[in-house]
Amino acid sequence: GLCCPGRDPSCLGTGWRPDGSYGPCYCDQACEHTLDCCHDYARACPVMPCVVSQWSVWSGCAEPCKTTYRVRRRHVIQEPRNGGEVCPPLEERAGCVEYWTQQGTECKQYLIPALITTGGFGKARKKRAADDGNERVGYCVEFQIVAITPACLHSHHSYTHWMQYLREGHTVCVECQHPALDSKSLHCYGDGSGSKKNQLLHWQAVGNPQCRGTWKRIRQLDTCSCPSVHSFLFI
């Protein structure tokens, strides 16, 4: 009737051992390794692994308007016994950014990832804006690309072919024009305004969500002067 956790020399009985000999035999978990268990140890002290609950839902971000983390947890339903499998981690964290404060106000521009597409759509967009009477003066922002996911190089569709020209270390120009130009803030989302010097900012290519990366804002200009393969648009 003894089932003792860990290594416990006092957890002792007298009886038959698995090797057929008769004498002192042990009922602690260590007997499985030292081979001096009582003959009925496996039946009397069956292995019981740890059992945990399902994960909880993810929490909100730890802090709004900041790159931080969110948490999910689970709890132990049954502790392991008799050498059963130990419990897995009970908490997981994942990177997280929330763009709105708890009061419902919008966070700073530089926290919002920029959505970009090829600058080849710019002429059609300007013409459509002029026809609608909504043409407003935009601007251009120069960035230096720091990191790119490999998925950008595997964009083989005609509408994603431009992503293959993205290269780490290159300077690119991204134009902010109607309708991406917000009428209240007079900025495009993700343009990096308000960011610190050399701060890493995030971008994502429209048409292939796996094509994304980071860049650093260099400066804002009234007009773009980058080669066409390095010119893009905010969405």
Question: Could you describe the 3D structure shown?
Answer:
The strands form four sheets. A six-stranded mixed β-barrel has the order 7-10-11-8-9-12. A two-stranded antiparallel ribbon has the order 1-2. A two-stranded antiparallel sheet has the order 3-5. Helices cover 8% and strands 29% of the residues. The protein is built from three helices and twelve strands; from the N terminus they run E-E-H-H-E-E-E-E-E-H-E-E-E-E-E. It has three domains: 12-44, no CATH class; 51-98, TSP-1 type 1 repeat, CATH 2.20.100; 114-234, no CATH class. The longest helix has 11 residues, at 122-132. The mean pLDDT is 82. With 235 residues, the protein is mainly β. The termini are far apart. The radius of gyration is 31 Å and the shape is elongated.
**N→C terminal distance:** 71 Å
Number of strands: 12
User: How many domains make up the 3D coordinates?
Assistant: 3
Task: Count every helix, treating DSSP H or I runs of 4 or more residues as helices.
Answer: 3
Could you outline the blueprint of secondary structure elements for this entry?
Layout: E1 12-16, E2 22-26, H1 31-34, H2 41-44, E3 51-52, E4 68-73, E5 76-78, E6 91-96, E7 114-118, H3 122-132, E8 139-148, E9 171-176, E10 200-205, E11 212-221, E12 231-234
Parallel strand pairs: 7-10, 9-12
Antiparallel strand pairs: 1-2, 3-5, 4-6, 7-12, 8-9, 8-11, 10-11
